[in-house]
Design a protein that fits this description.
Elements: H1 3-26, H2 35-63, H3 69-74, H4 85-88, H5 94-115, H6 121-149, H7 153-166, H8 178-185, H9 192-209, H10 233-246
């Protein structure tokens, strides 16, 4: 795999992770547990979709086949998406949404910080902006996780159950594929072992404050980076892509 091929897949994955999670978070719009959280989740979703636009635009330019951010977002099939499984799972109740967001945010922030110091100027520029947004995302999910974990018996139970269930999807975040290995050797992407150390430290610190128990590592789900997804992504894409596929080329 050439560096250009790896860069295309990597930018696509970064965009897909943000796009899919952004869509999932947007599903809380009008359904949040309190008005403030309704607005917060909508804003976080907008941040993620904005990041997705930047990464998908860059992926299209690297690919150099005339595909725009819209074409990459709305005109690919399920197997062409390279996001990890964690971000595509249904939102569940609010405790599950917060746990999923926290596990991803704790990974996403050190990743963006590392990219902001990398050799690729375009990725560096996108990441520098994203760091400010993702810092807030992690603070938001951390505070709510502590509120759930160290709250009532019911909120603690729901948060722990969500953590136990979602833990199996965290291993994929740190399992590099060929594209990540090529770019790490080229100094463009960080080594995931380093990101995992920072993620683990953040997870331990916040879980301790939340009085939640870190699950033991075991079997980890994988396949998203290769385009093999759970049964949940297809229906989500059908909903997300319906307008563009019904009216090809439509513009506002």
């Amino acid at each position: 795999m050439t560096v250009q091929e790896a860069l295309f897949r990597y930018a696509l994955r970064l965009g897909d992770n943000s796009l899919v999670l952004g869509h999932r978070n947007s599903e809380w719009c009008g359904h949040g547990p309190v008005l403030e959280e309704d607005i917060a989740q909508a804003n976080i979703a907008l941040d993620l979709i904005g990041q997705a636009r930047n990464y998908l635009t860059y992926a299209g330019e690297v690919e150099d086949k005339g595909r725009s951010e819209d074409a990459l977002a709305y005109l690919r099939g399920e197997r062409e998406y390279l996001n990890v499984h964690l971000v595509e799972l249904p939102k569940g109740d609010y405790a599950r949404t917060i746990v999923r967001s926290f596990l991803f945010d704790a990974f996403h922030l050190p990743l963006q910080q590392a990219l902001a110091t990398g050799k690729d100027e375009r990725l560096k520029g996108i990441a520098e902006k994203a760091v400010k947004e993702v810092t807030y995302h992690l603070r938001h999910s951390s505070e709510w996780l502590v509120r759930f974990g160290d709250g009532t018996d019911e909120s603690h139970r729901r948060a722990q159950e969500a953590l136990d269930d979602l833990w199996r999807y965290t291993g994929e975040l740190f399992t590099p594929d060929e594209a990540e290995e090529v770019l790490a050797q080229a100094g463009i992407a960080p080594k995931l072992d380093t990101i995992r150390m920072e993620w683990s430290a953040t997870v331990d610190r916040v879980l301790k404050e939340a009085t939640l128990t870190r699950p033991a590592d075991g079997w980890m789900a994988s396949g998203g980076k290769k385009g093999v997804h759970t049964e949940h992504l297809g229906p989500m894409l059908a909903e997300m892509q319906t307008l563009q596929r019904s009216y090809p080329g439509v513009e506002w």
